[in-house]
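Objective 1b: paired records.
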Amino acid sequence: MTDDSSQLSPPDWATCSEEQLWHYVAWHLEGAGIRSVLVGGAVVSIHTEGLYRSGDLDLIPDDLCSQWWFCRPCAVGGSLDR
């Protein structure tokens, strides 16, 4: 990362971890107004501090449930009790 908070330097593509790549991609998505959540194997890689390597990033929109019918209780005739 550079001293200028308006820019984020790209990681070293040959050696970066999933976490470094995620920070870079998420920063650019956020800058475009897209909030995201990291899911899948890259999460495991981050939590195991690299003991597991996913090799990719799986991102979903932060507001996924507001966009997809299968998350809405009324669409499946049920309700979600929290």
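Objective 1b, second protein:
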Amino acid sequence: MRYMVERLRMLMAWRRHADLIATAVRRVLPGAEVYVVGGATEERLTAVSDIDILVVTETAPRTAMKRAEIIARNREEMKRLGIQNSYLYEIHLVGQAEAQEIPRKVWKYENNIEAGSSIH
């Protein structure tokens, strides 16, 4: 029970990590757009949730292996920037064309996270 309470506390603090996540992503993928989507932006977090990060690049790799490699590099960069609980963040990497195919109802996101900006 204590673990679940602690996990929920960490999830609720996602805004503190938003700038660092955007910085980490852009170090690996310069020019990427970074959004927080889903339950976090709708304040529907539970202890079993994760924070969905949508990363939109001009073109994303086609193979799952290449995407996984980029996501792994993003996680390494997040850890270098001090985010030790990167497992709480689910990174979804898509290209511009794929992003246009995502149903608009899913696009309940904060504005594109600019490095150095705050999220409200």
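Residues 17 and 83 are 7 Å apart (CA to CA). Strands lie at 33-37, 51-57, 89-95.
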